[in-house]
Amino acid sequence: MPVNSDSQVKIMEQHQQEQRQTAAQEFQAALDELEDILQEQPTVDEASQVLNNGNGSVSDAQLAQEDEELAAIDIEAFEDAVADIEQYFAERKQ
Fold it and tell me: What number of other Cβ atoms are within 10 A of residue 88's Cβ?
């Protein structure tokens, strides 16, 4: 039994809508994850206040190591976010 062309169009449109919804959900999840990561990390000002208040003494070597660790986390998070965004736009063009 042949399938009506209108039915095929409706099926394709429904499939595209489902893909868009999935991509939008994945994109939003990536943004939420990035926001969580950024909120967890103290700002430079907050770290300076802790040091200036005498609440801890940290050596230059320890600060340098922490900076490297934070930079690695930031880079990984941003790379993940960029990959998710690129995937979202690639799927959107299809």
Answer: 18
